[in-house]
Amino acid sequence: MRLTVTSISVIIILLTSCSKPETSREPHRQGLTERGKKANHDKAITYSLITVEIGTPKSQVNVAEEHLYGKFFGDRAEFYIVENPELYVSNSQVNRLTLYFIDGMLCKKKYDLESDISQELMKSYGSFKFKALNDSTRDISKSEKIVLKTDGSARINEHLNRFQMKWDQEEVLIKYLIFKDSVQAEIHLVEELSAYKYLLDQAEANI
Fold first, then answer.
1. Which end of the chain has the smaller Cβ count within 10 Å, N or C?
2. pLDDT at 7
3. What is the reported pLDDT for 192?
4. Residue 124 domain-assigned?
């Protein structure tokens, strides 16, 4: 049976067996950003820029000033970019890590990834909101299944080439964006406060 999508944004439900107890339907929270790895894979390490939680004061975040990209809105907003930080999220290398601070608080983290981790995200966070970001993906999502099952494992339909997956984790949003229709594919994982855009607008308005 094909999944029919009637709007750009839909909620994908990962079905589990009805014979299992209710608690088994909740996905196991693996904490994909809890571990960092050396680029040579020799050992796993704990790395503060990975483990630090959204909402942490800047004074508690170990990021060097050399990574400061700029300050904006009367210095209320600060952005830091760390290139090739020798970190991994799940099994994907992080090519770039961007940290967004507003009024001295870490409000957003963006990871530019080397490879797709959508399967790991679905295992960890379960159901998600899907949003097509171009016409071809929108059309395909209306005629084909968005999530496919192979040997009991869920994966995103490979015909979808530009989309967003989103999870609402209480006060933090997790967004996963894939752009496979560009010359060089882009994959971004974003963690941000639900109020991030509001806080940024307030910082800009109160200059």
1. N
2. 33
3. 94
4. yes
User: What pLDDT is attached to residue 49?
Assistant: 63
Q: Are 142 and 125 in contact (CB under 8 A)?
A: no
- Judge contact between 76 and 103, C-beta under 8 A: yes
Q: Is 187 part of a structural domain of the chain?
A: yes
CA distance 96 to 165: 20
In a domain, 1, yes or no: no
Query: Can you tell me the distance from the alpha carbon of 174 to that of 110, in angstroms, rounded to the nearest whole number?
Result: 10
Q: Could you read off the pLDDT of 105-123 as tens digits, one per residue?
A: 999 999 999 999 999 999 9
Name the pTM for this structure. 0.77
Domain limits for position 80? 9-205
Backbone phi, psi, residue 39, to 5°:
-60, -25
Mean pLDDT, the chain, rounded, equals 79
Report d(CA 37, CA 42) in Å as an integer.
8
Distance, in Å, from the CA atom of 189 to the CA atom of 131, rounded to the nearest integer, reads 15
Q: How many CB atoms lie within 10 A of CB 150?
A: 7
Residue 14 lies in a domain: yes
